[in-house]
């Protein structure tokens, strides 16, 4: 498979490193409107995972500054779409219509209608469309999913994700282009709740958004027949605040907890037991799975696009609930 990377910002750089580890896939082209990035100099990119930008050798790779040109390249089989969120719908639809498979970075789109449009075009063209909801492939979260069936009924869950407000990527700070800090960040955890527990019956949320201070926080509740799953976090003040993620899920057979601050996934019941972890990097595992789906023509059942679209709609609903000071909103009208 010959791949074109669309976008060479922070997440584009993360994906580039992962593609190097995927057998049978070749980076054939890159697209950016930044001449410095097209030269292979990604040292100016920043992100919330603390990974520095690097210099990449693009001497054997086609370099495009026009999206129509790269999508018109008949040698490209698939695109890895790491452009800003507000560009996802148009770029994905154009790529699908050009006969390319599409891996699109999360969030899938800014709203549910845009995401559903992407899905409809993928169905008409017969191409694979998958959103890079990478938590579904992170070893720490794979371990949680694999442990649940043996531990009885779920009784509650808590998922938290926080980082400093970004000092990079001006578009991220514009809610019209990114959806806002909470939307961009906590969609990971909302998607994980969908993955593990399915669609909630209702949601509520509270929190605060202060653009001038760089704060965008949300504490949301997803109501299920078993009880409540909480998603919490967002952007803290800009500065030195470290990225952190964690979860705690309680079942009849015990509680599983994890924290990126130093607690590996652990089952607490009558004893304390560390959960086994897959050795692969989550980004590499995610991209390998996408390639397998493209090669086999099999839809991405592990990360289906309709669930990625629902995650977008749920995040929008949680933001609406925050505006309504925690008023519960039913989810029966979501697609």
Largest β-sheet summary: 9 strands, mixed
Average residue-wise pLDDT: 94
Gross morphology is globular
Element pattern in H and E: EHEHEHEHEHEHEHHEEEEEEEHHE
Work out the helicity level. Answer: 25-40%
The separation of the N and C termini measures 33 Å
Portion in strands: 25-35%
Radius of gyration from the CA trace? Answer: 20 Å
Structural class: alpha/beta
Strand order of the largest sheet: 14-13-12-11-7-10-9-8-15
Low-confidence stretches: none
Number of strands: 15
Strand and helix map with partners:
Layout lengths: L1 E5 L3 H10 L6 E6 L3 H4 L23 E3 L2 H5 L6 E4 L6 H10 L3 E5 L6 H14 L3 E4 L6 H9 L6 E11 L10 H4 L2 H17 L4 E9 L4 E10 L2 E10 L7 E8 L2 E6 L3 E6 L3 E3 L7 H15 L8 H19 L5 E2 L5
Parallel strand pairs: 1-2, 1-4, 2-3, 4-5, 5-6, 7-10
Antiparallel strand pairs: 7-11, 8-9, 8-15, 9-10, 11-12, 12-13, 13-14
Helix pairs in contact: 1-9, 4-5, 5-10, 8-10
Task: Describe what this molecule looks like in 3D.
The longest helix has 19 residues, at 305-323. The strands form two sheets. Strands 14-13-12-11-7-10-9-8-15 form a nine-stranded mixed sheet. The chain has a six-stranded parallel sheet with strand order 3-2-1-4-5-6, sandwiched between helices. The two termini are 33 Å apart. The chain is built from ten helices and 15 strands. The chain has 335 residues and is of the alpha/beta class.
Characteristic terms for this protein:
six-stranded parallel beta sheet; 335 residues; globular; nine-stranded mixed beta sheet; 27% strand
């Amino acid at each position: 498979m010959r791949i074109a990377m669309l976008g060479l910002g922070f997440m584009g750089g993360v994906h580039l490193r992962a593609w190097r580890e995927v057998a049978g896939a070749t980076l054939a082209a890159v697209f950016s409107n930044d001449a410095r990035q097209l030269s292979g100099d990604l040292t100016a990119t920043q992100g919330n995972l603390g990974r520095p930008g690097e210099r990449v050798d693009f001497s054997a790779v086609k370099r495009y500054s026009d999206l129509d040109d790269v999508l018109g390249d008949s040698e490209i089989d698939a695109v890895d779409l790491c452009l800003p969120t507000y560009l996802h719908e148009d770029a994905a639809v154009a790529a699908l219509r050009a006969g390319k498979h599409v891996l699109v970075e999360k969030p899938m789109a800014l709203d549910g209608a845009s995401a559903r449009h992407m899905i409809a075009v993928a169905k008409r063209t017969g191409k694979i469309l998958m959103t890079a909801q990478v938590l579904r492939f992170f070893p720490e979260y794979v371990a949680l999913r694999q442990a649940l069936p043996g531990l009885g009924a779920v009784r509650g869950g808590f998922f938290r994700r926080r980082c400093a407000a970004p000092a990079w990527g001006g578009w991220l700070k514009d809610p019209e282009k990114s959806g806002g800090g909470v939307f961009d960040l906590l969609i990971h955890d909302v998607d994980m709740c969908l993955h593990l527990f399915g669609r909630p019956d209702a949601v509520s949320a509270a929190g605060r958004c202060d653009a001038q201070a760089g704060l965008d926080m949300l504490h949301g509740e997803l109501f299920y027949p078993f009880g409540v799953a909480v998603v919490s976090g967002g952007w803290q003040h800009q500065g030195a605040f470290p990225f952190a993620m964690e979860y705690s899920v309680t079942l009849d057979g015990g509680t599983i907890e994890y924290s990126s601050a130093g607690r590996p996934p652990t089952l607490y019941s009558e004893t304390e037991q560390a959960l086994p972890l897959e050795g692969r990097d989550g980004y590499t595992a995610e991209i390998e799975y996408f390639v397998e789906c493209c090669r086999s023509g099999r839809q991405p059942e592990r990360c289906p696009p309709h669930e990625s679209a629902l995650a977008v709609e749920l995040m929008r609903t949680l933001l609406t609930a925050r505006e309504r000071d925690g008023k519960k909103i039913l989810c029966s009208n979501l697609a």
